[in-house]
Amino acid sequence: MTILITGGAGFIGSSLADRLLNNGEKVVVIDNFNNFYDTSFKEKNISINLNNPNYKFYRGDICDGDILEKIFRECEISAVVHLAAYAGVRKSFENPLLYAKNNIGGTINLLEKMIKFNIKKIVFGSSSSVYGNCDADKFSEDLKLSEPISPYAASKLACEQFLYTYSKIYGINTVCLRFFTVYGPKQRPDLAICKFFNLIENNEPIPVYGDGTAIRDYTYIDDIVSGICAAVEYDKTPYEIVNLGGNYPITLSKMIETIENAIGKKAQINRMPMQCGDVIKTVSDISKAKELLNYVPETKFEEGINKYLQWRKNNK
Fold this sequence. Notes:
By secondary structure, the protein is an alpha/beta fold. The protein has ten helices and 13 strands. It has helices at 11-22, 40-47, 65-74, 96-116, 151-170, 192-201, 221-233, 252-263, 287-293, 301-314; strands spanning 2-6, 26-31, 55-59, 79-82, 121-127, 173-179, 182-183, 206-209, 215-217, 219-220, 239-244, 249-251, 269-272.
């Protein structure tokens, strides 16, 4: 099987590529190396695989139809894992049109090329942010969603709906995976856990938005990758939306305490007001993932933080 990973130089995409290559699959990656964060992170992510004969890399943007045409002509793609997107809830308020163009427009562009080249399988990286400030005890996929509270979340929800339309009309087998707060080795430097590690280690204050009671369902990268791999294989129904969470929601204060314990150093707290677009909680219902994908997250948060710390020490 040859799998195209869009956004394949990023945190989740490169971790997936590593797993697929280890499993003997062929991997094709496209990434535009935008400047959302230091591109040296992505350069390092792809560097270990560039000499692998089963790995092929294209530097380009999925909004560019020509580069997608080139990929589909040159590579016999079996399935697409679509992770390319402008990320970041807070950043999306600064330029919502950019998020609409790249996240929604890029997805449609990709789907049009899949139709042209008769590619019938796609796994889409969606987000728990589509649930907004949901009142439910757990967020299940059958909740009726119409109130995303950031342009980023709105773009992800729109992509799910476009994917449904293309699945229905053109017979593309589709799984939309709603990721819940992914962390672990190779994590983006702008994300809270990586940022907090850096600041605490350097004896600098960490920005804490709100009173520390906000809850997140943290999910270790290895579990996310296992869920994606299972979704690539899934073919029993034409279209599904599936949560991938860690099944271990904790407060922001508990997250900070866990990092402090791992490092052996107390954090200096710079208390700040909640930011626009931040949700009060994310709590995944993963029963559907268990049923359809045999997904069972294996890494508890404390274990994952210690694994991440060890990776940081090994990759200074």
